């Protein structure tokens, strides 16, 4: 049966890295609201123009815009990893309603648990490929050739919001607006806490184990 997953956790916890690996291996659709928004900003679509100012400041884009976006991109049949959504209780409730309407439910919500100083270190060393979206870390996951994407050869860049002042702001936004989702989901039996401070491959193996244990 196809899994419908939510990856929850602070920015830099490794959600995107793991979502890419897992979706490739299990044939799931990876939905990253951050990636979709960055692409909208790049293309200067109406959504991108509205979202940019919030993203640059490290704040959340308003719920109504994000909920409309998810309604558009959520696959009809299920089999997805939601990465970076929901980020507020209002978004989580909207997701519940949407899944209900489609006759689907969540298989698991994985909480990526990682200390703040690790987040700061990961985000400040993160480099992304502006062409294909691959994610690297200068120390923990470096490209074969300095600053060049292994997959497509483009020159890697640092995200605008991966500067220290914005990172601190994003962490406080996480604590205030997103962390309440831990309680929201732990009231059901679907929240699984993961030690996200471990190395990338180890977390991947652990995720596969968790999904096996979850069965459905
Ligand atoms: P998120 O999607 O949660 O914001 P990313 O997957 O983009 O996080 O990871 C943030 C940074 O940390 C990236 O540079 C990535 O290469 C690196 N990273 C991801 N997982 C790990 C890990 N387990 N150990 C060390 N570095 C990691
Ligand atoms: P991310 O790539 O997940 O770190 O997201 C980058 C930025 O996009 C965030 O700091 C927010 O400004 C915006 N964003 C992404 N997902 C959401 C969401 N679910 N709700 C509100 N804003 C979001």
UniProtKB/TrEMBL annotation:
Instruction: Tell me the residue numbers annotated for binding Zn(2+).
Output: 129, 132, 149, 152
**What residue spans carry the region label NMP?**
32-61
The EC number(s) this enzyme carries: 2.7.4.3
Positions binding ATP in this chain are: 12-17, 126, 135-136, 198
Domain of life the protein comes from: Bacteria
InterPro entries per UniProt: Adenyl_kin_sub, Adenylat/UMP-CMP_kin, Adenylat_kinase_CS, Adenylate_kinase_lid-dom, P-loop_NTPase
* Residues covered by region (LID): 125-162
Keywords per UniProt: ATP-binding, Cytoplasm, Kinase, Metal-binding, Nucleotide biosynthesis, Nucleotide-binding, Transferase, Zinc
GO molecular function annotation: AMP kinase activity; ATP binding; zinc ion binding
Q: Where in the cell is it found?
A: Cytoplasm
Q: Note the Pfam families from the entry.
A: ADK, ADK_lid
Q: Which GO terms describe its cellular component?
A: cytoplasm
The UniProt function text for this chain reads: Catalyzes the reversible transfer of the terminal phosphate group between ATP and AMP. Plays an important role in cellular energy homeostasis and in adenine nucleotide metabolism.
Q: Which HAMAP family match?
A: Adenylate_kinase_Adk
Summary of subunit composition and partner proteins:
Monomer.
Q: What is this protein called?
A: Adenylate kinase
Q: Which organism is it from?
A: Aquifex aeolicus
């Amino acid at each position: 049966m196809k899994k419908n997953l939510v990856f929850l956790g602070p920015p830099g916890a490794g959600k995107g890295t793991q979502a890419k690996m897992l979706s490739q291996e299990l044939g799931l659709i990876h939905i990253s609201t951050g990636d979709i928004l960055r692409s909208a900003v790049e293309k200067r679509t109406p959504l991108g123009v509205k979202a940019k100012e919030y993203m640059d400041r490290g704040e959340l884009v308003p719920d109504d815009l994000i909920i409309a976006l998810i309604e558009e991109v959520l696959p009809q049949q299920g089999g997805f990893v939601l990465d970076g959504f929901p980020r507020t209780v209002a978004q989580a409730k909207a997701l519940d309603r949407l899944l209900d309407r489609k006759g689907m439910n969540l298989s698991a919500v994985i909480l990526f648990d990682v200390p703040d100083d690790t987040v700061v270190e990961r985000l400040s060393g993160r480099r992304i490929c502006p062409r294909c979206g691959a994610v690297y870390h200068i120390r923990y996951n470096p490209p074969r050739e300095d600053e060049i994407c292994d997959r497509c050869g483009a020159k890697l860049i640092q995200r605008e919001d991966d500067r220290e002042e914005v990172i601190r702001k994003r962490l406080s936004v996480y604590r205030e607006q997103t962390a309440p989702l831990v309680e929201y989901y732990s009231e059901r039996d679907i929240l699984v806490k993961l030690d996200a401070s471990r190395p990338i491959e180890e977390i991947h193996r652990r995720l596969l184990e968790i999904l096996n244990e979850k069965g459905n």
